[in-house]
């Protein structure tokens, strides 16, 4: 472990010391604080979170069985979906009425899986529209030539620095579709960083990544914290959660059922039941 990583982990641990392992636990310095967030699709309540706070400068994992509402909750917080009710503050500003691009501008940025349209663009073009796609990828894809002309040199410079950091610089003129699964994940993260976020939200950053690249991705995620960012990520792989998360929030059937350190969560009977319950249900279908 590098000195920088040790310092980052220790600072995150100190910030969370004494926070009770219970849903909605207050944090000393919450960058995000959400209350009464509910999203129903017809009769199905996908998200019903009473209260949650995310401590600034930490890596928080959001876990829960399939269909727990994790992705829907991400979509709500980042303005890509609208709640049935609820409110939240991000970095001291009311954010629940913001549109997705306003949320991104305020500093809360999520990664997106590379869609078909993006895989047909070069890696560098993907970076240059990295900021823009938070307002709707399809709309912006058509504007790339104009962006190219109008772009500031600073954007290009930043893109190249990030591609270097994520070891994708040699691929900059390649189609994104030519990248391996792991390299795509790196590109998704690098694109989100074009916006210089304060908080980055990663949806299953390890899905489809081979073991060789997993370690490198983990290091990149820790670096985000060491650079002062707050990280919230959805993940199913508990080994990974143990390795990098300072804190874990658990959702089941739309609700936040508990929070705590990775060790506390692994030992929590409610968490074990939630996962076993989900498997049990699946087995019955
Ligand atoms: N647009 C939608 N219309 C109707 N139902 C939806 C919609 N989006 C999500 N749902 C439902 O809401 C519930 C929560 O889904 P969500 O994708 O948020 O769960 P998740 O925890 O991210 O699951 P996974 O781990 O499988 O990705 C599911 O029952 C899902 O079928």
Automatic annotation (TrEMBL):
InterPro entries documented for this protein: AAA+_ATPase, ABC_AA/LPS_Transport, ABC_transporter-like_ATP-bd, ABC_transporter-like_CS, BCA_ABC_TP_C, P-loop_NTPase
SUPFAM superfamilies: P-loop containing nucleoside triphosphate hydrolases
Gene Ontology annotations for the cellular component aspect, listed alphabetically: plasma membrane
Keyword ATP-binding: yes
Keywords: ATP-binding, Nucleotide-binding, Transport
A Pfam family assignment: ABC_tran
Keyword Cytoplasm included in the entry's annotation: no
Ranges of residues in domain ABC transporter: 32-278
GO MF, one example: ATP binding
Source taxon at top rank: Bacteria
Protein name per Swiss-Prot or TrEMBL: Amino acid/amide ABC transporter ATP-binding protein 1, HAAT family
């Amino acid at each position: 472990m590098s000195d920088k990583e040790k310092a980052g982990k220790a600072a995150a641990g100190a910030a969370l010391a004494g926070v009770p392992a219970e849903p909605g636990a207050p944090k000393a310095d919450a960058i995000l604080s959400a209350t009464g967030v509910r999203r129903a699709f017809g009769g199905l309540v996908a998200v019903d979170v009473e209260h949650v706070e995310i401590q600034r400068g930490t890596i928080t994992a959001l876990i829960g069985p399939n269909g727990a509402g994790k992705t829907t909750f991400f979509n709500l917080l980042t303005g890509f979906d609208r709640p049935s009710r609820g409110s939240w503050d991000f970095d001291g500003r009311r954010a629940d009425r913001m549109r997705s691009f306003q949320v991104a501008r305020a500093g809360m940025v999520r990664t997106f899986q590379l869609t078909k349209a993006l895989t047909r663009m070069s890696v560098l073009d993907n970076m240059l529209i990295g900021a823009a796609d938070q307002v709707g990828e399809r709309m912006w894809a058509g504007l790339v030539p104009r962006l190219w002309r109008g772009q500031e040199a600073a954007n290009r410079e930043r893109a190249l620095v990030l591609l270097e950091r994520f070891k994708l610089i040699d691929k900059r003129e390649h189609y994104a579709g030519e990248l391996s699964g792991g390299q795509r994940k790196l590109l998704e993260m690098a694109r989100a960083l074009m916006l210089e976020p304060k908080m980055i939200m990663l949806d299953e950053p390890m899905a489809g990544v081979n073991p060789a690249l997993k370690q490198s991705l983990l290091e990149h995620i820790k670096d985000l914290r060491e650079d002062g960012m707050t990280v919230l990520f959805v993940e199913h792989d508990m080994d990974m959660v143990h390795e990098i998360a300072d804190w874990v929030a658990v959702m089941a059937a739309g609700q936040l059922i508990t929070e705590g350190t990775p060790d506390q969560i692994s030992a929590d009977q409610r968490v074990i039941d939630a996962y076993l319950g989900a498997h049990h249900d699946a087995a019955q279908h």
